[in-house]
Specification:
By secondary structure, the chain is an alpha/beta fold. The chain contains 13 helices and five strands.
Length: about 300
């Protein structure tokens, strides 16, 4: 595992001073916000440069999912919180088990609300947390660290590599220790922050964009959507019931009253409802079609 001394932190692009915000406290509120917005506008283009690497990562994760593998995110501070956030949104959006995509943060769940930045300095703790979560050779680890040198994350990456698992490194410093340690490196170079060293800003935004692409891309590739419709959504509250009705209306070409009726008949399962409505079959027949298609709606309809 590469070592990186704290005396070298100042050499990182994420720690550099940004000349555009050097007089931040002297600006009017509108001018200050304009500087922030100008810097934020650079993030999407930095992520775009990394699209080939992100595509490789999506395909690699999807391949592991087909064979029973899982996706783990691990990070400290903002990076860890973003990983946990993305993982926690997968079950309600795609109706996947909570175990399929998991987020680990240095310091444990308490660190989601209360800062526990000292926890990031232990590579052994990163390895222990990953092992305790049951990480296995068939899984995928995405190590997240804006600086690309967080010991907690590097320790987890080393543990995953020893198991022979797929490793992906998401950082914002090209050529970082994390990028070198990963099988696939995703490195949007966001540069100096508006507030020097505050990687919750541009680096955090880039991280969120990439995580959105990874999780959503994998779910699309594994058949959990129909076009751009989230047909695996769980209608567990009024908002989601309304969304489920609209999805059935769009996919099956029916009005809301028909969508409401067929959803009720399908036990509020969106994909079953769509197959029933489009194919003119009952619930049992629709469920059989979906089972034969391994849950992929487009295949069941074809």
């Amino acid at each position: 595992m590469d070592t990186f001394s704290t005396s070298q932190l100042g050499t990182l692009a994420t720690e550099a001073r940004n000349p555009a915000s050097a007089r931040l406290d002297e600006l009017s509120t509108l001018e200050m916000l304009g500087v922030m917005n100008d810097e934020d506008a650079k993030v999407a283009s930095a992520v775009r440069v990394e699209l080939p690497a992100i595509a490789r990562a999506v395909d690699a994760i999807a391949g592991r999912f087909v064979n029973g593998g899982r996706l783990f995110y691990i990070g400290a501070g903002t990076s860890g919180r973003l990983g946990v956030l993305d993982a926690s949104e997968c079950p309600p959006t795609f109706s996947v088990p909570a175990e399929l995509v998991q987020g680990l943060i240095a310091g444990g769940d308490r660190a989601l609300r209360l800062s526990s930045e000292h926890s990031e300095d232990s590579p052994e703790e990163g390895a222990r947390d990953l092992a305790a979560a049951g990480f296995a050779a068939g899984d995928v680890l995405v190590g997240i660290a804006a600086s690309g040198r967080t010991p907690y994350v590097l320790g987890a990456m080393e543990y995953a590599k020893k198991l022979g698992a797929m490793t992906i490194g998401l950082s914002c410093v090209p050529g970082s220790s994390l990028a070198k340690a990963a099988e696939i490196a995703i490195t949007p170079a966001t540069g100096a922050e508006v507030l020097t060293g505050s990687t919750r800003m541009k680096a955090g935004t880039a991280t969120k964009l990439v995580l959105n692409m990874l999780s959503t891309g994998v779910m699309v590739k594994t058949g959990l959507t129909y076009g751009n419709l989230m047909v695996n959504v769980r209608p567990t509250n009024a908002k989601l019931v309304d969304r489920a009705q609209r999805i059935v209306m769009e996919a099956a070409g029916c009005d809301r009253a028909a969508a409401d009726r067929v959803l009720e008949a399908a036990g509020m399962d969106v994909k079953t409802a769509i197959v029933m409505q489009k194919s003119g079959v009952n619930r049992k027949e629709a469920e059989a079609k979906l089972a034969a298609a391994k849950g992929v709606l487009r295949t069941a309809l074809n």
